[in-house]
């Protein structure tokens, strides 16, 4: 798409953009993040920069003193999360286009010029590709760098510009859609981005994921424990969204959640049944084939992601391993959903009982008055 900004003849024809940066203890990142914003190839006078802090205890706020033009908002809450931060930011913004930025991300200098032309009347949000700043730090960073560069659309995985189902934390959105949807869901400690993505699409708007550089990113995973917690949380998000929207026609995230449950449960069930039937070795081999079935798609991954076959095999094994902590996350979501319904039913019964007692007391009081 051509550079739309070049077609404008006057500065007042170019749309203003409010950039909302959120962070918590982002001392290593915040300075370079803000510098990347001020290095955007976009009229400086049309940019508004807002930073929302979730309670940093490092030198983040001290560093922000070097950027006097940044509007700083401190969340006044004991339970901050990304949704609350983003909502506080866009509610304080003055422009109709909102670019959300995670503080550990540095925007590409041409991103706004690339993304804005796609925001026509039918498009509500636009995102692009991320790249890891330290892709060779460890296996987790290598895998993240591969995943940032693929997008899932109606035709499957792609590295092309596509109409997508979801966006992440870095995204350009119309303010009107945030207003109509009530912004991000603040009850979610994770998964607020795919949740809002769905609600925007449900209104009839499209989401574009472009094969264009949006930002660099530091996933900052340096231990197995951190990886497992992050991956388990992603499983929780899939499960929560599936349970939240399973009654709606799209069955949002239901297929993915079921795939995680079946992908983990099938090997375990196979080993259990095979062992009870007296075929432990055979059942174990079948279970391993089920667990690592994605390895047989390595050629497809290599083609779609434009990577070497060895990288594709590594990525397939990585996905096969991810499904186990994701399984625990989906189970977490199901458990919380069930407990919430049990509590809701008990509370409803308690309310019904209280109302019945009040009615009885009211009736007895009226009878005593008659006497």
Report on the structure:
There is one protein chain. Helix 2 links the parallel strand 2 (47-53) and strand 3. Helix 8 (224-245) packs across helix 12, helix 9 (254-276) runs antiparallel to helix 10 (280-291) and helix 9 (254-276) crosses helix 12. The protein is globular and about 75 Å long. Mean pLDDT is 87; it is low at 367-371. It is built from twelve helices and eleven strands. Strands 1, 2, 3, 4, 5, 6, 9, 10 and 11 form a nine-stranded mixed sheet that branches. Strands 7-8 form a two-stranded antiparallel sheet. Helices cover 50% and strands 16% of the residues. With 371 residues, the protein is α/β, with parallel strands linked by helices. The chain starts with 16 loop residues before the first strand and ends with a helix. The chain has two domains: 14-222, Alpha-Beta Complex (Spore Coat Polysaccharide Biosynthesis Protein SpsA, Chain A), CATH 3.90.550; 254-345, no CATH class.
């Amino acid at each position: 798409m051509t550079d739309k900004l070049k077609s404008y003849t006057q500065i007042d024809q170019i749309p203003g953009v409010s950039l909302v940066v959120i962070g918590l203890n982002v001392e290593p990142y915040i300075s370079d993040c803000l510098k990347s914003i001020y290095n955007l190839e976009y009229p400086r006078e049309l940019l508004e920069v807002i930073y929302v802090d979730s309670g940093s205890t490092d030198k983040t706020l001290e560093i922000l003193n070097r950027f006097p033009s940044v509007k700083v908002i401190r969340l006044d809450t004991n339970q901050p999360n990304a949704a609350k931060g983003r909502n506080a930011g866009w509610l304080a913004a003055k422009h109709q286009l909102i670019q959300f930025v995670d503080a550990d991300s540095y925007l590409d200098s041409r991103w706004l010029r690339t993304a804005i032309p796609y925001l026509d009347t039918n498009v509500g949000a636009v995102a692009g590709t991320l790249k890891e700043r330290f892709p060779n730090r460890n296996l987790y960073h290598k895998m993240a760098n591969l995943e940032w560069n693929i997008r899932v659309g109606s035709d499957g995985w792609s590295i092309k510009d596509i109409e997508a189902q979801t966006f992440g934390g870095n995204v350009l959105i119309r303010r009107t859609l945030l207003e109509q949807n009530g912004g991000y869901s603040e009850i979610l400690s994770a998964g607020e981005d795919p949740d809002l993505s769905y609600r925007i699409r449900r209104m009839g708007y499209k989401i574009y994921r472009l094969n264009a550089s949006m930002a660099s990113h530091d996933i900052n995973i340096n231990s197995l424990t951190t990886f497992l917690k992050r991956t388990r949380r992603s499983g929780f998000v899939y499960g929560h969204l599936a349970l939240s929207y399973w009654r709606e026609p799209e069955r949002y995230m239901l297929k993915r959640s079921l795939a995680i449950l079946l992908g983990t449960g099938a090997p375990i069930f196979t080993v259990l049944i095979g062992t009870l039937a007296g075929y432990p070795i055979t059942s174990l081999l079948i279970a391993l084939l089920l667990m690592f079935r994605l390895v047989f798609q390595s050629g497809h991954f290599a083609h779609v992601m434009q990577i070497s076959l060895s990288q594709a095999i590594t990525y397939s094994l990585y996905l096969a391993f991810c499904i186990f902590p994701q399984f625990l996350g989906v189970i977490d979501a199901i458990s919380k959903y069930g407990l919430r319904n049990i509590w809701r039913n008990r509370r409803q019964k308690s309310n019904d009982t209280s109302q019945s007692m009040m009615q009885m007391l009211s009736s007895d009081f009226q009878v005593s008055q008659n006497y």
